Amino acid sequence: MSDPNKAAIAAEKEALNLKLPPVVHPPENIGVDTPAQSKLLNYRRSKEQQKKINQLVMDEARRNLDRTLGKRTPQVPEPDYPSTMTSEIKKKGFHYIFMKQCVESSPIVPIQQEWLDHMLMLIPKSLKEGKEREDLLESLINEVSSDFENSMKRYLVQSVLVKPPVKWLEDEGGPLPESPVVLDYSNPWHSSYVQARNQILSNLHIVHPTMKILLDLGYKTFADTVLLDLTGIRAKGPIDCELLKTDLSIQARKAEEKIMNTWYPKVINLFTKKEALEGIKPEKLDAFYNCVSTLMSNQVNAFYIYVK
């Protein structure tokens, strides 16, 4: 190969090995107003000059006002009363009155409408009919609302302020009511209550439901029963003791037969049912029947002699 060809090939290789600079792309925000550009475009020198002029005018006006106020005569303080006219007690009284007015001017929660409605429900309907009575009810409601508001103000004053010992101050209506004394439940009581309740139910047989049924039977049977009727005996006039004894014995025997034929079978029928001994333990049966016997004896002893 000739030398000219070698020189051309070498020149081409040298051209290929030549490094070109990187490609630079245009910015993306080209043609868009940036904050700096917007500030520059919106700038007006006339506005800046106007701000400076306004500031100078305000400063000058402030200096003139200070000069004018400095030339004024200072205000003379209000003369105080001599010590002989305003004593310490009087000052305390005036101070208390001022503080009381401040407390009373605070907002007060009005009476609830539900309370007023409940009070109106207690009034019979016949007393609420008519124009005059409606006006009277309205005046009563206003009076109750006013009394409630005054009571709340009085309570607020007495709970916030301490009244000084000044005689000429008006009475506030007596001391505040004391808090009600309630039972102390700070210690646990439920377990002891349940224990006492169970003990009462197991030992106090008079509270058993069967005893109530027995009492009802006695009331129904003995309500109109007369053991001895002396009206007929008095009508006979004087009578021998033996004859009186015989008549009374006959009446008592008849009353006994009536009781044994009416009341006693019902009692026997009551205690033959299983429900009568419900909740009674076997070891408590004797005590339970003793209670029944005592109750029946008291009912029989409650008989009275009808005397007319």
From TrEMBL:
Name of this protein: Dynein heavy chain 12, axonemal-like
Domain of life: Eukaryota
